[in-house]
Design the sequence.
């Protein structure tokens, strides 16, 4: 399991929007925006939820493959240009209890632009 740095945890705690990527049984990638996600208190996993979630392609893809990725990013500044973000790849579970969700267990975490340097 990969572990988040303090800078990554701090950044993720301030962000609201993300994109989740899955792969269908046909091998075709699928990327969609999500606004309902949270890093667990112990930072061991990320839970992704949404309305009527178990009917979604992303939920079905995870149920079939057991893998997903999440990208959280934004622009700290446009002048100078300062993109920043965190990509989380890992194994995933399609859960129904206590709510319909995807639980992402990080195996690789990549971040960029989280420090204050240009």
Sequence:
């Amino acid at each position: 399991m990969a572990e988040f740095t303090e800078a990554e945890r701090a950044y993720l705690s301030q962000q609201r929007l993300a994109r989740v990527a899955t792969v269908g049984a046909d091998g075709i990638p699928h990327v969609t925006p999500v606004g309902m996600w949270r890093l667990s208190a112990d930072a061991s996993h990320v839970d992704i939820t949404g309305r009527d979630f178990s009917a979604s392609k992303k939920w079905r893809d995870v149920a079939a493959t057991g893998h997903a990725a999440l990208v959280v990013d934004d622009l700290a500044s446009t002048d100078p240009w300062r993109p920043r973000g965190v990509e989380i790849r890992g194994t995933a579970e399609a859960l129904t209890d206590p709510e319909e969700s995807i639980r992402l267990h990080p195996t690789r975490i990549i971040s960029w632009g989280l420090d204050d340097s240009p």
About this structure: The helical segments are 6-14, 57-65.
